Amino acid sequence: MMQRDDATLRQMAAARPDMSTWLSANAGSGKTRVLTDRVARLLLDGVDPQHILCLTYTKAAASEMQNRLFLRLGAWAMLEKDALTAALTELGVAGPLSDTALRDARRLFARAIEAPGGLKIQTIHSFCASLLRRFPLEAGVSPQFVEMEDRTAKLLRAEIVEQIAAGPDATKLYALARHHTGETLDDLTAEIAGKAPLFDETWTQAGMAKALGLRPDATHRSLESDVFHGHETQLLTKLVTALSVGSTTDMKAAAKLKRINALDFNSLPILEDAFLTKSGKAPFTVSTRFPTKATRAALGDTIDLIDAWMHRVEAARPQRIALEALHVSTALHEFAQVFLPAYARAKQLRGWLDFDDLILRARALLTRSDVAAWVLFRLDGGIDHILVDEAQDTSPVQWQVIDRLAQEFTSGLGARQDVQRTIFVVGDKKQSIYSFQGADPREFDRMQRDFAERLEAAGTPLQTQRLEHSFRSSRPFSMLWMPHLRGARSRGFHLNRATYPSGPPCPAASICGR
Ligand SMILES: Nc1ncnc2c1ncn2[C@@H]1O[C@H](COP(=O)(O)OP(=O)(O)O)[C@@H](O)[C@H]1O
Ligand SMILES: [Mg+2]
To answer: Is 32 in the pocket of ligand 1 (CB under 6 A)?
Structure first.
């Protein structure tokens, strides 16, 4: 386990403002602290606040960053010489510090909030919104557009679903609903809206069937005739009877098989569930151990017919799944073709942009090379330092926005030459909680490799760092101990290591598991 002091030194190295850094670290290891340290050091080095952009995914994380930075800069404004020198040295600023340097440090808070454009600490969404607001013409959005809150978007999506249900395309809605197991369609329509660009791509049922490895002639009917040769109703009755008086495993299988109403396509998943293995070396295959030995013996010659039937169920399974996937996919695409244009029209009529629109429009704006460089320059004279917190929650499209913002960093081109530019990214893949909103933790590694290559080529290599020590982990313990210790002290008891070599017994042992 890494020691606290080592951990702090690593943090200092990661906060070095002159190197692009990729930091992956566990919760509580000080990622946000390093990020704010780094911003403070950039400011100390004379970088103008408007050239710094801090991005994250949630509003809460953005305010956390802002609060911590402003608390720190605010505290410096009040510190006497010695205390301020100590604070700056702790941050990794090399001494000695002149009076002018100290005076500048005390003024950072004012500089950060007074600078035109100010220091940007934002969610990716709100940054994109501000970009679109400043360049509506170039972005092709109404200058008065309104950002939709999640709730508004949800209501509008529900309204569109209602309209579809009452219109000529209702069957497409019902076809999709048949495959959807959620309580409401909202999680599904939200995901469709979030992945709208994917539905623009040409999709054909034939192409999908091929991608799924489905035989061209496979249908419900053809799979039924592959599996059922006519005598299976009798086989099923005999099998269930024998299993019902067999071992526990056999009886469980009997219970499953009894759920079958008719031997048709819909019974295949139940048969697979009863007949095939679920795990092990060869999952979803027939096992020699089912039915158990005694039951097999009881079935006499019939067992050969049952074995053959079970193998037919096994053989049909991949095609059965592919066929179902094709049906689901078809239902999804046909619904999306109706839903997405209606949703887009409804938003356009009202001048609304949802969260996905903000990101997609900003990406489009920054992708047009004729406009992008100009936009970036007009953005308070350019962004030179990009810092991303909670980067594991960044979706691929959002990465593309960040990537475009950083294009000057790696191309060496820029409206202003000889300016140092850095990128700083921190995240913890294990903590990704937004995958349902399109975040892809693997993207974190991909982007790291991509930036590393490009920065290397540009002669400004990326340093990669890990932080392992958690500054938070010991805290819940000590908090649980505190009432106990306070009570102990008041009784004249003093904690010492000899009494409790590994700390006092935790009074909340049942909670913290000690
Ligand atoms: N070097 C350090 N020394 C003391 N406390 C620290 C240090 N680094 C972080 N902390 C504290 O640990 C807690 C977690 O830090 P934070 O930056 O929020 O971590 P993360 O963003 O990785 O979850 C905070 O309360 C922070 O003040
Ligand atoms: Mg954090």
So the answer is: yes
